[in-house]
What we know:
By secondary structure, this protein is an alpha/beta fold.
Amino acid sequence: MKRILIASKGKPEHLAALFRDALPEHEILIDMPKPGDAPVDYMVVGRPAAGVIASVPGVKLILSLNAGIEHLLHSGEIAEETPIVRMVDDGLAEGMTEWVLAEALAWHRNLRQYEGFQRDVKWQPLAEKLAHERTVTILGAGALGTPVARHFVAFGFKTRIWSRSGRTVEGAQAFAGTEGLIPAVSGADILVNLLPLTAETENIVDARLFAAQAKGGFFINGARGGHVVDADLIAAVESGQLSAAVLDVFRVEPLPESDPLWRHPNILISPHVAAPTHMHIAVQEIARNIQRFERGEAIAHIVDKAKGY
């Protein structure tokens, strides 16, 4: 009987029950194996403490509960030959799409400004634009960026999408590589970051990108805090180059109480909730990948360790 170890700080008992239903022919573990125990074939991991993965040698497959896997790559605990599978499921994409569209539309139609006017008992109509009068740029054309771009296209926004490879999305203008970054962002009213965090994309969202946006633009970050130079973002908002920003992810989480981002009136913070993992969906996706692996079939969403995603 193949053994699966769940190494998650969340609710491992709940996860174990879901896995036992999905893979009844496997033994599901939530406690670390003892010396002399039968080998563990697969590890399902969230953000395990240092040393956890290294303490279980011989694992054939590491399956992440998260879309972001940079913490696993940086841990140094996973053998080069051991595949890592990142979490990509319909629930993650659907959740991210809902969150990005909600924030973008609230800014586009001035809803937060009207909330402020109501608190001040002020009747003050603002100039309103239609979607086709706005340009949106999405950074990242992967499992999250692509469906988000499709929804912006469906709403009628002039949509651009930038990626390393130049992957296309029907109805959107595609840009590729370093030379295409500034042209992709130039004049954008809304900039959405959904990139993977790699050595190449760390600090990619900086003063140069904010300056390229349309005056008074809006920035949305649903990817990783390490993409954004926070001081440049604050400066862009304070200067009026950006009218507002919304951030769901940060370099340090939870965001320290002393961080100036908390107190900026035009920067909205949410606690990494844009696209939470829905465990019942995630378990089914992981189970399908384990079954593919055991049948000798190609596994979906294997991490390219050289690229970092």
